[in-house]
Amino acid sequence: MTTNFRSDNETPVAAAIMDAILEANQGTAWAYADDKWSTKLDQVFSDLFRTEAIVLPVSTGTVANSIALATVTPPWGSVFCHSGAHIQNDECGAPEFFGNGMRLVPVDGEQAKLTPSALEKAINANEGHGVHSYKPTSLSLTQATEGGTVYSPDEVRALCDSAHGLGMNTHMDGARFGNAIASLGCHPAEVTVEAGIDMLSFGASKNGCMAAEALVIFGQPQWRETAERLRKRSGHLLSKMRYVSAQLLAYIEDDRWLKMASHANRQAAKFAKAIENHAEASLEYPVQANEVFMKWTMEGFDQLKSQGIQFEVWPGRNDLARFVFAHSTSDEETDILVNCMR
Amino acid sequence: MTTNFRSDNETPVAAAIMDAILEANQGTAWAYADDKWSTKLDQVFSDLFRTEAIVLPVSTGTVANSIALATVTPPWGSVFCHSGAHIQNDECGAPEFFGNGMRLVPVDGEQAKLTPSALEKAINANEGHGVHSYKPTSLSLTQATEGGTVYSPDEVRALCDSAHGLGMNTHMDGARFGNAIASLGCHPAEVTVEAGIDMLSFGASKNGCMAAEALVIFGQPQWRETAERLRKRSGHLLSKMRYVSAQLLAYIEDDRWLKMASHANRQAAKFAKAIENHAEASLEYPVQANEVFMKWTMEGFDQLKSQGIQFEVWPGRNDLARFVFAHSTSDEETDILVNCMR
Amino acid sequence: MTTNFRSDNETPVAAAIMDAILEANQGTAWAYADDKWSTKLDQVFSDLFRTEAIVLPVSTGTVANSIALATVTPPWGSVFCHSGAHIQNDECGAPEFFGNGMRLVPVDGEQAKLTPSALEKAINANEGHGVHSYKPTSLSLTQATEGGTVYSPDEVRALCDSAHGLGMNTHMDGARFGNAIASLGCHPAEVTVEAGIDMLSFGASKNGCMAAEALVIFGQPQWRETAERLRKRSGHLLSKMRYVSAQLLAYIEDDRWLKMASHANRQAAKFAKAIENHAEASLEYPVQANEVFMKWTMEGFDQLKSQGIQFEVWPGRNDLARFVFAHSTSDEETDILVNCMR
Amino acid sequence: MTTNFRSDNETPVAAAIMDAILEANQGTAWAYADDKWSTKLDQVFSDLFRTEAIVLPVSTGTVANSIALATVTPPWGSVFCHSGAHIQNDECGAPEFFGNGMRLVPVDGEQAKLTPSALEKAINANEGHGVHSYKPTSLSLTQATEGGTVYSPDEVRALCDSAHGLGMNTHMDGARFGNAIASLGCHPAEVTVEAGIDMLSFGASKNGCMAAEALVIFGQPQWRETAERLRKRSGHLLSKMRYVSAQLLAYIEDDRWLKMASHANRQAAKFAKAIENHAEASLEYPVQANEVFMKWTMEGFDQLKSQGIQFEVWPGRNDLARFVFAHSTSDEETDILVNCMR
């Protein structure tokens, strides 16, 4: 019994997704995304999001984010994001590389979320003086956030309204988008395109796929060429794209993505409850998706580790640890963890 | 019965490779290439090439080529390659993007091959005048070539000697490296590191894998950081890298890569023989690997197409067509094609 | 008596230009091109070219060329130019740097000129296959050419028509634009905007200024922001831009630029005549501006050098030398040279 | 009588500097910094800084800063600077452009200065986790600071020690370096190379020159090629570099740079005293160089403006204004200003 709560990046591929890969492995197929799986994606995602969508299948969230931001942001443009965002802290400057030196502006915010007032204040402080300064161009939100919290449709709309009001574009890093939707219980369009999001990095790898993400552009057909050129030019146009696209199709079919995400969220909720009932440990953030940030002591963490529980003590903090639950986390594993907290 | 000779990019994944993927799909594994498959690669390739090797698994040949060249070439450096090279014609400037505006210098050569004299002449013509010109920095050879021919170890050594003599670095684009080795019958080290190649894009996707290539750096530990940073920064460090690495391990194991390549080469040879015996059609290049370039007429090509044969009439030429044979090409398929030429 | 015919880059600043600099040196002035000299440029050049023009004063031709090309060419776009062009051979990849890895495609042509047929053939050979290839985007002509020849308005128009017909943009590198106009005797608009040129690097440094060039954009107000951002971002927005702009204004005033260029051209013509009358030496190109390319022997060149004549034996050629005449070349100097050829 | 205290960027060229330009304007000279003025710079600056120096004359501080930082910082490296630094706020991302997407990390600090503890805290918070994060690579200090304060040699040494201790490189943006040295009264080497600075942007344009700055590299001959390539590639290698170099030589000769800076500092001190004696106005920072930041009311500022005083109300602040004094500020002008404060 492995009890690994380190990261949903470490999980295996779900059976249904692997079946789709195997099924796609029959005979030859057109290369470079001209196959029958890849060419279906625009329609499938347009249906899913109730709006005309352009979809680029890719292998990582980093490239989806980077292409999205570089498609709409000039080299002298800036992207505003939460100071804990993956694009800011975990991508080694991929957005800056794709965007030829564009700049990310990190903004602080409670519960790993941005607020319109903090955003507007940051934009004002950075809009500078004409040609001498970066030009505020894009907003990037993370959903679910890096703290395991979830923006409501109203919260997203308020932020997008601020950004659009200033002529900026909006992007959502949805590495854990399924977990967010499963948590909100809303239609996926409600918290994206209908709330003002222009582009979505629709994550699937963390929630049951192998290496499959979709960059979804809502409307804006004029952005297609740039996005496609950036994908090719960065080495991300797989010759055998069918295997990525087949994953994405199977992931969406029958609401598999939401079922897997709901399962993960439920496991997280069970652990959250155990923490709430614990004498010493406490929650750093409200648990709204599949991640739990527990405040406790190094003694407490060591004790858990000694019982075979795998998780990450947060870098730079010795009173905080992260536990991630996934599609593949069994009830039994969660029970073991919960019991450790008794 | 599909009789598709358009491209080895269109072929399915070989059964043994898919088995390896399935086998890697057990439980959790460390993310970002810290898994037990990825961490084995350095040793496995060091053994394969009889020298200490650094291996970066990646998903496409384009990114392997681009990282290799950008690792050793400054933005003001130039890379010399054949005018038909993939990096020159088919990667939308990925090397230039990774290399921040470095330049490719295309050099003509018979049978899709470079010669030392043509190379040296091109270098002389481009080395210019100090800071005003690009600095000749790298040589990139394609093996097997874009014409389906193969460089001998001696040919590679002569070219690498020329390059090294001028202080340049050497790279081999081995998108069809297996086919080249199967053709040469030599040890893979003989035509690479032992002939003076510093870096190899070891292709596997065209020869039975799904999306798996290895950037192999021979010696030169000081190049590791740059190569790894470029991989991360371009969005190519997969969180679930185990699935790529497992493919590569299975590909090498039991000489699978050579067996599959040999099979493909044999099919090509059968078709080449048919062309040689044909009254009108003829070979554009000697057939030494898994590609056949046939000179004929549009009438001839149309006739083949009407019989269900799929292949590519070469862009800009109406007297030339390419037929690619692969690990998955059945004897039956080749026989159908051969019979069409009778 | 110096008899230096090496390069017009080595010449001093003309007296009238220096006077303008001194005159601009009174009191304070708004920084960053908001001064009264810089803000006059749009109108002065609009008048000069009989069309609405956007003008960016800069310090070098390299940056004028690079901003022009990078303003209209995406990173995956290609620029077609003569294989002898300065942007191709003498700018260490500045266009590629400003253009984030865009590509130059050199095209051969007699007398250092492009022809529509050679251009179209090159474009056809490079337009490739969609997202896999660079996209032909721009044409760059050099006027006067690197061979000292001059395109007629009809020649420029034919090339621009070819480019525009393919949806491409057109740029003229006018490092020696004054010499070209002095040679043609036409209106400067006739061989630029009225012949289909979209952007001009209007050179002044070689013809009497200190470090002053103007990037002139004809029409196209939507290109202004990108051009101005690139200028700032590359460190070329001088705080004390007035000194550059004052040069440009004085250069144009009273046709000084044409008078200086005519003087230089006349000196070149005298030397050309001497070569035509020489028993052994001959002209490599027709002499139409201020440069003379003389074919002769190393013995001949050495003899000239022994008489104190300074000039450049052409790199890679021992039978060719270049002599450049400038605004500051005195009749006496030219006579000395001419006498050496008797 | 102009009473313009807006910026030292708006001042004219000092007479002695203009004389040097005129003197350099005799006859022809080798182009591209091979002239007799430019080739003297290494020695002159080596003498000035008591250490072997490599000097690149350039036209702007932005390009000096950008080349310096991009020479030592890889694209995945980060540069730590004060949050008010010119490179962070006023260069439209030039460092990021030259550095191909490297990142600036702004750090807060009192009196516009960094402290070792704030620096180390920022580095710790940003050094992240291996390949996923930017790598802290460089420190950039501004001297005099953007607040008109000056780092002492000890302060510089402490910061450089912190940076070097972490394997980082150090740069000083000396746009107002003369004012700092005039204020400190120390040897210029004491607060630069002898305090641990690796590279200095030695500013001259704000203090009497036309468009002349020197990038000074202390020791480190291996950095020369990259720095020179970046200068050429960014269009900053002037063909007639003699005019820049002649300014720099005249600027240093006879301590002109220090005399001019001292004059400017004295004017600032007079105004500072007037503020200290004022009932309502006060100083935002101690006045240690040639800039005075005065806190007051919009009413106060408007009153000054109505008396013909020109200055800048600080962006985003209506209680703060900046007054800059320069080599060209006359005692009379300062008296007028001072009298306005009575």
Task: Describe the model.
Four copies of one chain form a homotetramer. With 342 residues, chain A is of the alpha/beta class. In chain A, helix 7 (153-165) links the parallel strand 5 (135-142) and strand 6. The first copy, chain A, is globular, with a radius of gyration of 20 Å. The mean pLDDT of chain A is 97. In chain A, the strands form three sheets. Chain A has a seven-stranded mixed β-sheet, sandwiched between helices. Chain A has a four-stranded antiparallel β-sheet with strand order 9-10-13-12. The first copy, chain A, is built from 13 helices and 13 strands. Helices cover 39% and strands 18% of the residues of chain A. Chains in contact: A-B, A-C, A-D, B-C, B-D, C-D. At the A-B interface, helix 1, helix 3 and helix 9 of A face helix 1, helix 3 and helix 9 of B.
